[in-house]
From TrEMBL:
<feature type="domain" description="PD-(D/E)XK endonuclease-like">
    <location>
        <begin position="623"/>
        <end position="901"/>
    </location>
</feature>
<dbReference type="InterPro" id="IPR027417">
    <property type="entry name" value="P-loop_NTPase"/>
</dbReference>
<protein>
    <submittedName>
        <fullName>Probable DNA repair protein</fullName>
    </submittedName>
</protein>
<dbReference type="Pfam" id="PF12705">
    <property type="entry name" value="PDDEXK_1"/>
</dbReference>
<dbReference type="InterPro" id="IPR038726">
    <property type="entry name" value="PDDEXK_AddAB-type"/>
</dbReference>
<dbReference type="InterPro" id="IPR011604">
    <property type="entry name" value="PDDEXK-like_dom_sf"/>
</dbReference>
<dbReference type="InterPro" id="IPR019925">
    <property type="entry name" value="DNA_repair_protein_predicted"/>
</dbReference>
Length: 917
């Protein structure tokens, strides 16, 4: 049979014939379409045709794909065959077939270990399908080790099918065609073929069998518009897509009934970009929604992976939590997800659990841990308990049992949540249930499996399943290269026709001999075959609309691109398209009126009677940046912790502070220290360090596992020993005050609130680390430092480290201030005093370059008072402008970039400020 010689008819004639007869149980006129999309398209066009002819109801015409047609023929004869006692083997679903291929590949693991078994199984399944499509007999000529391996796998696959008493879909299709050839299946009198430009060999055989069975075969003429074709070159691929979207929007505005198409040949790779740009251009209200749910005015043929749909992503995370636990980042996402729980706002309560598990530093999160963290929330606690009880004692079970148990676990967790589902979410839930049903069918292939194996299978299914929610019919379609076959539009734009992407490069299949692929003309077998195939497709685009635009990007990053040679004639007349790179919503906002500036440098002044949290850090942050002080201390904005391995710098600081406090509460003065023999001192240091580390281990056990606990204890003992040597060598002193309480207080509350003090109209709670009484009765204020060295605040104007200065002003008789640096490589005092001789590292103010101009210690105190009162005055007035003292440097350790927009304001790229000196 010469396919091209078949009689043809056009669409109107086809619709007239469909209207005049042929539907019901065995319609005599059937239309076979090259794709399900074309079948859908013909149904829609037929409905429009009927409506044009004044009909309101009509029988559904028989328009379907060849695969659906064959299955239907088989279903018709099934009852008779069952009655006749024939054994009808059930057909493997696509998922079962894939699983079987995975198993077959895994079984040969010992012969040749593969890095990517799943990919090998996918390629083997693809080669199997190609062999059936092109009617290549198996085993294939063994031209390479890869082909030999595929031959072995396909033999094993067949044996498994026999053992399972199942049949593969491709083999069933071949058997059904044989039955048509033998006249064992009832066939219609008349079949019209639509969209088959160059039928695959299996289709050719089917059409031949139908013709031999007496079917009158005809071809539907493809759309043949005498199109106006123009070519457009855009600066970049992104702008090319935007130009196409704007062109569609404009056409749809002028003619809402027009059928518009946009073809993106590599749509699967560019799906996210297409979705973003078309949403921004055609439905900006939807683009602004975080979940982007809702009906779109356009149809994108390629769906997303079901596993990436928020609701299903949450279900998978919940199951994973039950089966093996989650890492902290996954757990954080799950806790804040809105798709589970007993009430709509439960995720807000769960966000607090997220905060706590981050603060405690848990790297791995499981159900018992969540139970512990939820002690204050009875409802949530009860749910975790119930889940724990259900998930205990996993063992092995049939995948069908796992599917049921997974459903129950999700129900207990309150999935899919308490809020009403929209249409897309409802369809996602249905797709998920279908997935569980599919998992339930795997028992025959894999037998009893563990919960984690069942979870892995389910997750794989969700990754493979493409989810495309049904939407009402629309007139704008975005399609891949092949999907436009047989369709017609009023106007069509084809993007991406540059010389690198169109025609696509040849990429022969590794499991089929290359020579064989070339001989049967598989589309990617060679550059020549790919070119021929692309020529046919391009020619089809030229005829499927009255107006056609071909476009390509001029540049790909820094590489210049030329138009595809397949549009050579059109490209010679190309026009450069200027593109509005701003989304219409932004343009509309910009058109709304004049720019209005709202100065917001001042927040409401703080309540004078109330203590502002933050202590001396409030003044320090005000010095660094007024907005930082306002957001941190008045709004209470804090960055969430990110759990990591080992103690954080702040933990190390807290441990040193606590150990020294314990030590000095015990010793009280230097005389007692000097009286200790070395072994006694070592023992006291050891006890203080142990107590401080145990306190940290209780607070954040995950950050101090036993090995690190031991190492940290050794490190701290050595450091404190060095420090006590310095304390021994100082002139005589008594420790008078520790962390805000008198040194003689026997057992301090671990976190007592220090009393509030008033400074320049602000109420603050401050807590000096330590105050020593010196031999002459004056006082030395000490601040322990365990982090990186920073410039001292002696002459700063806006002191970022104001604590020592403030203590000097608020405490009486202070004649010296010092940082006690206790860090690896730096164990020393650094300070300033009214006179010499306090301790090594504490200089007389008149010897210090920054302070020698003060004239006297009292004058220096007066200068510091002025500086701190200025900062306090700003806070009292609510000054909260975004004015970092040193842009970049001040912002480096600040977590408020997203709130203050400093990067946008100063044009700092993300990460750039982190490298600032
Ligand atoms: S990031 Fe910089 S500008 Fe923004 S609040 Fe922090 S310190 Fe101020």
């Amino acid at each position: 049979m010469m396919f091209d010689d078949l009689p043809t008819l056009d669409r109107d004639a086809l619709f007239s014939q469909l209207a005049s007869g042929g539907s019901g149980v065995m319609p005599q006129l059937v239309v076979l379409c090259a794709s399900a999309r074309l079948a859908q398209h013909l149904h829609e066009r037929y409905a429009a045709w009927q409506a044009q002819h004044g009909c309101t109801v009509w029988p559904t015409p028989d328009v379907l794909t060849p695969e659906a047609f064959l299955r239907r023929l088989a279903e018709r004869v099934r009852p008779c065959r069952v009655l006749a006692g024939q054994v009808l083997l059930p057909v493997l679903s696509a998922a079962e077939s894939e699983l079987l291929w995975q198993r077959v590949v895994a079984e040969t693991r010992h012969e040749a270990p593969l890095l990517r078994e799943a990919e090998a199984a996918r390629l083997a399944a693809e080669a199997w399908q190609l062999c059936h499509d092109y009617r290549l007999p198996l085993p294939l000529p063994a031209s390479s080790p890869d082909v030999e391996r595929f031959n072995a796998w396909s033999g094993a696959y067949r044996q498994h099918c026999v053992r399972l008493q199942r049949i593969d879909a491709a083999e069933e299709r071949a058997q059904l065609i044989e039955q048509v050839e033998r006249g064992e299946l009832p066939v219609p009198a008349d079949i019209v073929l639509a969209g088959f430009d160059d039928p695959l060999p299996w289709l050719y055989r089917l059409f031949e069998a139908l013709r031999a069975a007496g079917v009158h075969l005809r071809r539907l003429n493809p759309p043949a518009h005498a199109a106006q074709i123009q070519a457009v070159v855009a600066p970049t691929a992104d702008q090319e897509l935007r130009a196409a979207a704007q062109w569609v929007a404009e056409r749809a505005r002028t003619d809402p009934q027009a059928r518009l198409g946009v073809i993106v040949p590599d749509l699967d790779a560019r799906r996210a970009d297409v979705l973003r740009i078309f949403d921004e251009t055609l439905c900006p209200a939807l683009a602004a929604l975080p979940a982007r749910h809702g009906e779109r005015p356009y149809n994108l043929t390629l769906g997303a992976q079901l596993a990436d749909i928020g609701l299903v992503h949450t279900a998978l995370a919940l199951l994973r939590l039950c089966v093996e636990g989650l890492d902290w980042a996954q757990a954080s996402m799950l806790l804040c997800a809105p798709y589970w729980g007993a009430s709509e706002d439960e995720h807000l309560r769960r966000a607090d659990i997220d905060r706590r598990l981050r603060e405690q530093g848990h790297l791995h999160v499981d159900l018992p841990l969540l139970q512990q963290l939820t002690l204050h929330d009875e409802a949530l606690q009860a749910r975790w308990q119930q889940l724990c009880a259900r998930c205990r004692a996993h063992g092995k079970a049939d995948p069908g049992d796992w599917a049921e148990r997974f459903s129950v676990w999700l129900e207990v967790a309150g999935w899919p949540g308490a809020r009403p589902l929209d249409s897309a979410e409802y369809q996602a839930v249905q797709a998920w249930r279908e997935l569980l049903r599919t998992l339930g069918t795997f028992g025959g292939i894999v037998g009893a499996i563990s919960a984690s194996e069942a979870y892995v299978q389910l997750e794989h299914l969700a990754r493979q399943r493409v989810f495309q929610p049904q939407t009402p019919p629309v007139n704008i379609h975005v399609l891949g290269a092949l999907e436009a076959r047989g369709l017609d539009f009023d106007a069509l734009w084809v993007v991406g026709l540059d010389d690198e992407r169109w025609p696509a490069q040849g990429r022969p299949h590794p499991f089929i001999p290359f020579e064989l692929q070339r001989r049967v003309r598989m589309p990617r077998a060679s550059a020549a075959v790919a070119l021929h195939w692309a020529e046919r497709v391009t020619q089809g685009w030229r005829c499927c609309a009255r107006e056609v635009v071909f476009s390509w990007p001029a540049m790909d990053e820094d590489r210049a691109l030329a138009p595809s040679p397949l549009i050579h004639a059109e490209a010679a007349q190309a026009t450069a398209r200027s593109v509005d790179i701003f989304a219409p919503a932004w343009r509309a906002a910009a058109r709304c009126g004049r720019e209005v500036h709202l100065p917001d440098a001042y927040a409401p002044p703080p309540d004078k009677a109330r203590v502002i949290p933050g202590g001396t850090r409030l003044l320090g942050d005000q010095a660094r940046c007024p907005f930082r002080a306002f957001a941190t201390h008045r709004l209470g904005v804090r960055a969430l912790e990110e759990p990591g391995y080992g103690p954080k710098p702040i933990d190390r600081g807290v441990v040193v502070h606590r150990a020294l406090e314990t030590l000095w509460r015990d010793l009280r003065d230097q005389a007692t220290l000097l009286a200790l023999v070395p072994s006694e001192l070592d023992a006291r240091i050891g006890a203080a360090v142990d107590e401080a580390l145990e306190h940290l281990a209780r607070q954040a056990p995950q950050r101090l596992p036993p090995m690190l606990h031991r190492l940290e204890a050794e490190r701290l003992r050595a450091l404190l020993k060095q420090w006590m040597k310095i304390e021994r060598e100082r002139p005589m002193f008594t420790v008078e005050q520790l962390e805000g309480a008198a040194a003689e207080t026997p057992s301090p509350d671990p976190d007592p609130d220090p009393p509030s003090v008033s400074f320049a109209g602000l109420r603050l709670r401050i807590r000096p680390d330590r105050i020593d009484r010196l031999k002459d009765g004056s006082r030395l204020v000490i601040d322990y430092k365990t982090g990186a060295r920073r410039p001292p605040p002696w002459h700063d104007g806006r002191p970022e480290e104001p604590q020592l200065l403030l203590y000097a002003l608020l405490e009486s008789g202070v004649t010296a201030l010092a940082y006690a640096r206790i860090a690896a490589g730096a164990v020393e005092f650094e300070g300033l005093a009214a006179d010499h001789g306090i301790a090594p590292g504490i200089s007389r103010y008149s010897d210090c370059r920054d302070t020698r101009d003060a004239g006297s210690w009292d004058a220096l105190l007066g200068r510091w008072r002025g500086e701190l009162e200025n900062l306090a005055d700003e806070i009292r007035r609510g000054h909260a402008s975004v004015t970092p003292k040193h842009p970049r440097q001040s912002c480096r350790d600040c977590h408020l970039h997203a709130a203050c927009r400093i990067r946008e304001r100063f044009g700092i790229a993300v990460g750039e400020d982190e490298d600032a000196p």
